[in-house]
Amino acid sequence: MSDVDAVPVIDLSKAPGAGEPWDRGIVTMALWMLVEALLVTNSLQVSSGIRIRALRAFGATIGSGVIIRPRVRVKFPWKLEIGDRSWIGEGVWFHNQNRITVGSDVVISQEAFVTTGSHRARTDMGLITKPVVIEDGVWITSRCVVLGGTHVGRSALARPTTVLKGDIAANSVVSGPDCTVVGERFPTS
Fold this sequence. Notes:
The chain is α/β, with parallel strands linked by helices. The protein has helices at 26-40, 48-57, and strands at residues 61-62, 67-68, 73-74, 80-82, 87-88, 93-95, 100-102, 107-108, 113-115, 117-119, 127-129, 132-134, 139-140, 145-146, 151-152, 157-158, 163-164, 167-168, 172-175, 180-184.
């Protein structure tokens, strides 16, 4: 037996929690997948209003004046809340196995990925979900990743490709894979 053979492997067929976020029946899930493909994710469908109506019809709470661009993906619309006047950029993915709350006047730019789920990687690969809260005035720039359990404070800004995790202070500018605070968005002095 080599040293490599001694390294454990987790049997993924025994991973707990895989179906837990599916808190709607199979018919609702199948219908949502069809509506999402035709009206929300579809880049040929140009109306933000149609996207918003489709999301609301499946339980999303979306404020007034919101703009949702093409190619947006939403795993479970009934676990999504977006405040007034927010802009959701092209290709944003809300992988919301838990609640995602987006405040008012928030910009989530192109190709950002907001996820509430992860796994217990060192034990049994069991599903772990934690909500995400993005407060009013936040700007999450392009291709950022927002991890479950993150709370982004009022008017914070994340530079492109930042991985956001934990508590992000209000008015801070964060950057990089370690979400380092690099300044203030609106200088106070």
